[in-house]
Specification:
Layout: H1 2-21, H2 28-31, H3 43-79, H4 85-104, H5 113-124
Helix pairs in contact: 3-4, 4-5
């Protein structure tokens, strides 16, 4: 009980002494003039960069759409009996490319788990180069 009472009474006094004797040190870097973040780029240039980035992303999505349509065609042909080694190899490659694009660009959360599992399965047929799904 005495230790608690001593701590309760002495702690505010110690904090007060420490606050009075401590000097506030401001880092030298915060005292200098702030550097311009992007060297105050021209707004038109910034919009050009945004348009270029959006254009690149649109191009990537269009290619992904084409690969997905191709994979659907290849899968339908596979189901209908075209299970040749050449056809299966093309289908496996297409599935792997789709899966890699989805994971690289962090788009996999937008697609159904069944679809991703199917891509993973067909990609795994490739053997030692199989993708692993976390």
């Amino acid at each position: 009980m005495k230790k608690w009472l001593f701590t309760f009474c002495a702690l505010p006094a110690l904090c007060c002494c420490a606050a009075q004797s401590a000097t506030l040190q401001v880092p030298q870097s915060s005292l200098s003039d702030p550097a311009p973040l992007l060297e105050q780029q021209d707004e038109v240039k910034m919009l050009d960069q945004m348009i270029a980035s959006a254009t690149d992303q649109l191009h990537m999505l269009e290619q992904l759409k084409e690969k997905m349509a191709l994979f659907n065609q290849q899968r339908e042909a596979f189901i209908k009996g075209d299970q040749s080694k050449a056809h299966t190899s093309r289908m496996v490659r297409t599935a792997r490319q789709i899966y890699e694009v989805l994971t690289t660009h962090h788009l996999d959360h937008l697609f159904a788990k069944d679809y991703l599992d199917e891509l993973t399965f067909f990609s795994s047929i490739a053997g030692k180069n199989a993708v692993t799904r976390p």
